[in-house]
Design brief:
alpha+beta; CPE0013-like fold; three-stranded antiparallel β-sheet; 2 helices; 10 strands; 18% helix
């Protein structure tokens, strides 16, 4: 049995995930269907939205050296270290607008890395 707190909505339901003898998982404690979906995904294939920073090739007017980025979709947890390596190797030229795609379709996972700040 595993315990989780649901993070899908502000209620924060405490949930229990039980593994039956035949390998089926059951979720209790959730107040809505979204909690069950979250719990099962968290147990079977956890994913996270990744945030990081990317280096700029030159310094703009504001002397910013790095810009924040994030993934457009959650990344499988076991692939996060490789994604971060690729993000930290990336250098971007100015200008950068919030929402600009910095890395497109990372490793064919359908995950883009986008800027979250505008820097001229």
């Amino acid at each position: 049995m595993r315990s989780l707190i649901c993070i899908v909505c502000p209620v924060g339901c405490p949930m229990e995930i039980n593994d039956s003898a035949n390998g089926n998982l059951s979720v209790t404690g959730n107040k809505c269907q979204r909690g069950e979906v979250y719990a099962l995904e968290e147990i079977r294939a956890p994913k996270r939205v990744v945030t990081a920073t990317v280096s700029l090739t030159e310094i703009g007017h504001s002397s910013v050296r790095r810009i924040p980025v994030k993934t457009t979709f959650p990344c499988p947890r076991e692939m996060i270290p490789a994604l971060l390596q690729d993000i930290y190797k990336t250098k971007v030229s100015l200008p950068v607008k919030a929402g600009d795609v910095i890395i497109a379709g990372w490793k064919e996972q359908g995950i883009d890395v986008v800027a979250t700040r505008t820097v001229d």
